[in-house]
Amino acid sequence: MTMLQGAPWLLAHRSILKPNQPFKVSLYGQDYVLWQDKTGKISCLPNACPHLGAMLSEGWCMTQADGSSTMVCPFHALEFDSHGCTVLPNSNKQTKPLLQPLDLIIQGDFIWTYGGYEPKITIPTILKDFATEYEFIGHTKNFSVKTELLTMLLNMHDYDHQNGTHRPLFEIEKVDFKEFIDHGYHSHAYFDLIRKQPKLNDIFKNLGLLAIPKTINAHLENFFPCFIVVHGESPVASAKQIHFFVPESETYTRTYVLIYGKAKHPLANLIKKNFVRLAEIIIEQDIDILGKLYPNVPQHIRLNNEIGMDWVKRNFENFSLAETQRLRE
């Protein structure tokens, strides 16, 4: 259970999908093609054409008279509808489904899936609240990181790495941990990040730094295992930076960020797009350090603020144990 089958995963936000353009996603070691037609309907099929295995995501969409779309294989131009059916050459009869569609749960702009497994955790409702109350600022690019899901989650809940991994960006000098509230698969972490004054050169590179105070009163709201909400408050804006995780395989995890905001000052409207780039830099710094770890090294040092990492390990073990017990029954 290293990929936590039965947890909900946000495959994409609707803004990531351009109409009638295939988008490749991976989950649990299986590749899929995701697409949105002109009517807004979203479909998802296994990515391998059942003829000779060509990647459907390398093909294109064909719009039908009713506005729906078929996915066209780039090898022999076979068209597959959202049910996985096609019409073979020299035939006017549609085949039975040759590809099993991935079950999707569409909640507004949010595209969820359980990957074909029985749900073990309900989908959090907080994202729908953000969509109602805040302006959608944008999304980062997708990052496929060569690390397993557990390592990714441990890194994201390691509150002491802020003044190491992210020191070059935020000039963080100290982490002052305040409180951790544990509600099982849902938790809150509160801590202060004490910063140096940013250099003018850094501000010119990313104007989003102007919205970050000298002392960051960090509030992270964690929804195991699929996403983390960074609640950000400054005199300029209120922001919600949401980090998502999708287990592509045993050894790769996809991550990306959605950002919502509410302006408090006209300056926020001028720099809001910089928040997206700021989030990408944070991910790039995390990826860099994760690629420079020696695996399976025994931990002989424990830092003061590892409570978030303990929460991840405990939930990971409990989730896996519950599944093992269910299979034995």
TrEMBL record:
Iron-sulfur found in the keyword field: yes
GO molecular function: 2 iron, 2 sulfur cluster binding; metal ion binding; monooxygenase activity; oxidoreductase activity, acting on paired donors, with incorporation or reduction of molecular oxygen
Alphabetical keyword list: 2Fe-2S, Iron, Iron-sulfur, Metal-binding
Superkingdom, taxonomy of origin: Bacteria
InterPro entries: Cholesterol_7-desaturase, Rieske_2Fe-2S, Rieske_2Fe-2S_sf
Domain named Rieske: residues: 9-113
Pfam families in the record: Rieske
Record-linked PANTHER family: 3-CHLOROBENZOATE-3,4-DIOXYGENASE, IRON-SULFUR DOMAIN CONTAINING PROTEIN
Name of the molecule in the record: Rieske (2Fe-2S) iron-sulfur domain protein
Originating organism: Anabaena cylindrica (strain ATCC 27899 / PCC 7122)
